[in-house]
Design brief:
148 residues, alpha+beta, tt1808, chain A, six-stranded mixed sheet, three-stranded antiparallel sheet, 9 strands, 39% strand
């Protein structure tokens, strides 16, 4: 279950009880079952924090409604103005970053209207900047510098 990722090593607080591994989430402030997707999500939280984004400006499993359906964005980075700036969609390491994943994050952005997107399975990462003026999507090589 603990797959090596293409993200910096994160100091996760892991515990085991009755054969189940748990991770303490610094954002949600509780223990969660360590699923493959949660493994990626927790590493992403630390990666974002190591890149200058304060924990207090991150939301995890942010609830939203899209076409009358309840959805949850894995990680949303907010600015000091409380406006969303970045959506991160996390998948388990064995899940490929496909067009379906892109459609999923795009549906979240229909509601949140951020400038940046990140999709990751912990091994591969896709970063994009949204140019609303021209209706373009620019793919980036690295996590963009954002004013938060």
């Amino acid at each position: 279950m603990i797959t090596p990722l293409n993200l910096p090593k994160a100091p996760l607080d892991l515990t085991k009880s009755e054969g189940v591994v748990y991770v303490h989430c610094l954002i949600r402030k509780k223990k969660l079952v360590l699923t493959p997707e949660e493994w990626v999500r927790q590493h992403v939280i630390h990666f974002l924090n190591q890149n200058g984004i304060p924990m207090g400006l991150m939301g995890v499993e942010v609830a939203l409604k899209y076409h009358e359906r309840s959805k949850r964005a894995d990680v949303v980075v907010f600015g000091m103005d409380q406006k969303p700036k970045l959506i991160v969609e996390c998948k388990a390491p064995e899940i490929e970053l496909s067009e379906a994943v892109f459609r999923q994050i795009a549906s979240y952005n229909y509601v949140l209207k951020v400038d940046f997107l990140m999709m990751t399975n912990g091994r591969d990462h896709i970063y994009a900047k949204i140019d609303r003026e021209n209706g373009n999507l620019e793919f980036l090589k690295n996590l963009p510098q954002m004013e938060v």
